[in-house]
Each structure stands twice: as structure tokens, then as C-alpha cells.
Amino acid sequence: MIREPFNDGWRVTRRTSIFELFTAGDGAGAVSVTLPHDAMLAGGRSADGSDGSHTGYHRPGAWRYDKEFEVPASWAGKRVSIEFEGVYRDAMVYINDAFAGQWANGYSTFHLAADPYLRYGRTNTIRVEAQAYKDSRWYSGAGIHRPVHLLVGDLLHVTPTGLRVTTPQIDDELAVAAVATEVVNEGTGTRTVEVLLEVRDGDGEIVAADHAPLTVLAGERAIVRRRAYIRHPALWSVEEPNLYTATVRLTDAGGQVDEARATFGIRSVSVDPIRGLRINGATVKLRGACVHHDNGPLGSAAIARAEERRVRLLKDAGFNAIRSAHNPLSTAMLEACDRLGMLVMDETFDMWTVSKTDDDYARRFPQWWERDVDALVAKDFNHPSVIFYSIGNEILEVGTPHGARWGRLLAERIRAQDPTRLVTNALNGMMAIMDQIPALMAQGSGAQADDAQTQAPDAQAQANAGGPAVEGGFNDLLDGMGALTALPEVGERIAESAAVLDVVGLNYGDSRYLTDHQTHPNRVMVGSETFPTLIDRYWKLVTEHGHIIGDFTWTGWDYLGESGIGRPTYPGEGPSFGAPYPWLTASTGDLDITGRRRPISYYRETVYGLRRTPYLAVQRPEHREHPFRPKAWAWSDSVASWTWDVPAGTPVTVEAYTDADEIEFVLDGTTAARVPVGTDKAYLATAELPYQPGTLEAVAYRDGAETGRCRLLTAGAAARLRLTPDRPHLGADPQDLAYLDIHLVDEHATINPISDRTVTVDLDGPATLQALGTARPSTEEPFHTTSCTSYEGHALAVLRPTGGEGPVTVTVRADGLPPATVTIEVRQPGGTVSGTATRHEPARS
């Protein structure tokens, strides 16, 4: 089938009732957009009239997308359908004002037959309506946030998700690629075609081929299976993500009828409680990052280049696995994981039959879950990066018999379609005993919690990491989560739900790692969601025990909504959950929303054993009277800077992260302190030093010998702008992007983080300014204007091509500084190209 992008020429507006159209006019206020697009982001934020801190104070609403498109007369007698990769939420689709279909879930790929509603040889219209209102616990975005494609082909064709490849037999000399192709004949007569299979390696060389005839009756679906034998296969792994492409062509006496293509990898996956998770026979420990679906300044728009950039930066930071939290990943992100070598736990739902917000998916789940599970498997099937399907996140009913039954239904639905992957569920033990928590809180740190801490030593450490166990308010409840999760009642209540799974995912459940291994020695576990601040303890458990296969931190990348859950809080500021307007981001994550690594990222890299050079950070001196220690989702309130607006001699606390024995802190060449590592926390050394402008160094020693050093310089006054594009050119495809880092630097090119000012960006050429912003966690500035205030000396501009070729000149101005320019070339063909899901090509005569 011809598979064409259907992303240009759309207009979006707020949806109005039929009665309002009489006064406002049809399409009043509509704005031209290119998909993917986030309608909610442009709607603005407010303290009132929004869904509150959950969604970052963005306004809810309902939106309407319209597009005109030409339908040639030659399409009559063809099969025409439309593929939506994701519309948030409750999508209603109309073609030429006739209802064509709907989909409830905002993250599932779905296909609609268009031909019953088309007018051939004329201009046609399509309308998509979507809404978002009190249905998410984080920023959801809204609208057509993932790409759309138009599919046109013969009445006999490969179905849109009908090419599936598995590799059931693999050794060094030979791999078997089992290719199953679903063909449908929607014509009125029996058809016989030749099915030609071709497998190419990463260099484009044919490594296997086969052919067979196929007869399909009118109205029939048939599956043709062929086995390709690939000699000396190049296996797919995190370190070497080798890919192959399978192409299936249907031909008859008149020539080619249809073609479908899928990219796949050759790899094996197994798991057991002794050797853990193995990829191609080698044990792999998962260095995992939970990620939400939004792209920071781009909102929820899943533009291919943005998805790829996130994967690349997460891998550069030391992660080898991603958990989609808590909805299926986009196809573009899966393709990036395939290309770059990132393992994936792809998740279905955040709720089943019990709601977490006023109007969430639970109301649709009983009628839609089967279709959404099928859509997940169809999307993921050929992606070697996907090794887990997660059937849910912190599902409220998993501690009940009926909840366990639902888990079994979901798991078996997946296994019936794809038995090659592991099934897990992110269980939160605290959710399983929600009915008991009020009594436990009333008891304070009573006997039950004490007994649980005795049974699970890690629980006491988790409780002590932030404060008292199970008393006080919501934050204290979180601090005592380890003690609650360790209770025997939790193990009893989740036993049936856990028995459904291949791997038991535990959210904040490390207190069960060892006790459950004693009672269930065949159980394999993964930390499906964990506090970032406790990675030193978690990773020790992961590396020392075969049945614990990895850890997924919350989160790898900061996100919009759940505002302020990771912010350090000081006296008088109130709890971190539900931070007041204008808080925007969760303020947690190893990387901020612009992609810059935060100090916790370097600490984690050190814990993983991937970093030998020490890392140096400084706690903000303005809060010295109330030092903040790592707690739950909040790291210490530190930044990598030795530029502070405080008098010389002001005491400041400095931190160094290292796997060495000692750290020497050196001020302008003179030793200011030499301290052991790990006194208060593993891999961490701290000291209090007097601030003085100049040079601060951290020198690491092991057994008395220097093993590395890190240096911070005091910046002078901001003198100029430094513009750093992430690439010298980009493709003309609007799915490509260029990211431009803007820094305020002194005359020696040192970033000045305390001289923030308004930054304005102008473009000239075939691109548009898709977004401009910073990682400032609390701000009223939108991302879709041409000006913003820098944050810690940094801003990020995102450029999106408009389809033409030529140079794009970017001019940046900042108050009091000379303007700066940079030129980025836009070239054909486009840059990042989607290529690993099933792709259909035009039939050729």
C-alpha cells in the first residue's frame, strides 16, 4: 500500500457546540498546524480554571482538527484507510461530515476505513475531535499528538500491522527469521498472488530470500508463513543494535500488487531467578529510567527527532532501559530505541476498572481494553528493543481476587498474540492495603510497622532516609512506604496478581526483594519504579542478587505536571506534592526538560560504575540555614557552579560524587578540606568551605593515589551569547528538528548562571521556531513565544523545518549583550526517518 504522511495542512480550534457555531462561525479562531501537535500547550495556564498541579495548571478543554485533502478519481476501487498513532483523548473522526470512527485511549494506534465516506475526484474533508478534562495525574497534552498516515492500496493487500517477524532459533552460525504475513482480499473474486520475501542486513545486502504462491478467497484473511535462514547473524543488543529489514511483495500476472516492510532484530530474551535477565545468553542488569510521554517545551507532540534525542541523551547518561510511564511509547521512540540500543518496558494503562481521577480511562476500560492491548502488541511486535509488556501501573484493585483476575485476562491476551516477550505489572504494595493505611497512620510508628521493619532491614533504612515512618502527612507516608510495603499483608494480597506475571514489577517495593525471595524462590523481580535518591542501596541489591534484574528510577527525564514533587522544600513552603501555581514541572529526573543532566545523573552514573572522574556540585548558599538532604524524589539542592551572588567568606556546602576513598577540595590551589567518601552516603563526600571567587577543584584518591579531578570556575560578568546547535544541518521533513542551546558566557566562555535576562530568537529561512524555553520549574512563561528569560544562564530553542531547502539564519538577542547568529542548513532528503515498524510501499507496475 502507498503509505503517505498525512500531517500537513491541518487547522485546530477549540471545539464548540452546534449552537455556538451560529454566532461564532464555523472554524472561527482556527490556527494552521503541522502534526504531531499538542493543543493543550497553546491553551495557556492559570491557577484557576485548570486541572491544578496534576497537569501543571494547564487548562483542560475540547478541540477540533480540520483538514481538506484531494481524492483522485483513480482511488475508486482501492482500499483507503487512515492511521492515527495517537489522539488524546476520546477521538471522534468524521470524513465529509460523516462519522467514520472513534477511539477512547489517547495513546493507542488505530486505523479507520476512509473509502465508505470519500468523494472521488473531489476535495474531501476530515475532522477529528478530542478532549482532555480531569483524566490524568500528570500533563497529558491534547489533540493529535502523534503522526497520522494515509494508506492507499489494492483491495488485496497486506494488513497495516500484518507483517510480523520472530527469531525462534539463534546460534552463531545461523538464525531463523519466521515471517508471518496477513493478507486480506476485500475484492469480490478469488485472487492468487506470489509472495516474495527478502531479508536485508544493515548494509542493505540481501541475506535471505524465499517465495510461495497464495490463494485468497473474496472477503478472506490469510496468513502466509515463511522461514528465512540468516547465516552468521549480527545479533541485536544494547551495545550492538544490529537491525535487519524484511520486505514482502505480492505480485500477480499484472505486476506488483502490494509491498510491506518491517525492520527487526535478532536477539533472544530469557529470565530466571538465578542468572537473571539474559539477552543473547549474557546477563544484563537494567539501568532503567521511567519516562513520561511529553517532550518538555514541545508538550506532548511526539515529533520523531525529539523522541530520538531523548533516547540518545538518556543512553549517554548511563541508562540502558526505558519504562513508558504509564502509557504505550510512540512508534518514533521505539524506532529510536531499536537504532540506538535501548531496552523497553512498554506499559499499557495507569488504571483498570477503578478511577484515579474524575474522568479517566477507567470509565472506558471494560469496553476498550482488548482493543488497546491488541494495538500495543501490534505496534511493538517487530521492535527488538521491547522486552517487557507491562499490563499496568499501581493498579488499585491488584490486591483483590477480582483485580488478580483482570491481570490474568490482560496477560493472557498479550501472550496469545506474542509469547516471545515477558509480561510484568508495576505493583505498589501500599495500594494493595489502602483500606488499612488510615489505621496504620493513626497508630503512628506502631507495632505493625516495627514488626515489618524487623522482617525487612531495608524498610528501616528507607523510612530513615527521609523521616519518621507512617505518621504525619502525605510526605511522611511516602517516607514510610518501605515499612508499609514490607508488611506481611502486602505479600498475601499481591500473591495472586504476582503469580500472573513472568517478572514481578515492584514500585517502591525494595523492602520485599529479599523476604519474597524466601517465600517465592522462583519469583523474578524488577524495581519498576524507585526513589532516585536511594540508587546506591538499590543498585547494591540488584548487583548482588540474581532474582532482582534491575531498577527503574522515577524519573529519567523531568516532565510537565505533578508539579514540584521533586523540589526541595524549606520551612513554611508546605508539602512538595501539589506545589502552588506557577509551578510547572515535577522537578525530578536525571535530566531536566531541556535535556541537561542534573547532579543526580552524575551520582547515578558513579553508582553504576560507569564514571571514574569525580563530579563536583555546590548546595545553594541561600538555604544554608536549612540544608536539604536527598529525600524521596528530591536530590540535594545543588548545582554545578562556583558562581554565587554572596559575599566572599560565606560558608557553602560542597559535594563530590566518586567511587574513590577520599576527596580533596582545593580552593585556588590550596587544600581547603580532605574528607573520606561515604561517611553519610555511599559515593558521596561533603565539606563546608568559605566561598571565594576563583577555582574550586575536587581531587579523588584511592589508596593514596589520585584517580581523577573535577573543576568549577567562577564566571565573570556575562559578556556574550554562545549558540550551540546540536547539528549543522537538518532534513526538510517536519518530523526533523534542530536544538539550539543558548548560553550566557563571560569573556572566557564560562557560563554565568546568575545573570539571567530576556532572550529573544528570530529566524529567517525554511524553518519555524517550534519552542523556546528553559528548565525553570516554576514560571508563567509559555514555550510558544519568541522570548523567554534564561535560567541558570541557559535557554533552548527548537527549530522545525517547513518543507523547503536552504539556510536558516537564527539571530538571538539578550538584554545588554551583542546579538549572536548561527546558520543551519536545511537539506533534502529529511533527517530522522521512521523505519522500523511495518511500512507499506507503493505498488509498482
Automatic annotation (TrEMBL):
User: From the UniProt record, which GO molecular function terms apply?
Assistant: hydrolase activity, hydrolyzing O-glycosyl compounds
Q: Where is the Glycoside hydrolase family domain?
A: 721-823
* Source species, domain of life: Bacteria
The DUF4982 domain covers: 649-707
Where does the Glycoside hydrolase family 2 catalytic domain start and stop, copy by copy? 277-438
The residue ranges of the Glycoside hydrolase family 2 immunoglobulin-like beta-sandwich domain are 166-267
- Gene3D superfamilies in UniProt: Galactose-binding domain-like, Glycosidases, Immunoglobulins
What family name appears in the similarity comment?
Belongs to the glycosyl hydrolase 2 family.
**Protein name from the UniProt record:** Beta-galactosidase
The species this protein was found in: Nonomuraea jabiensis
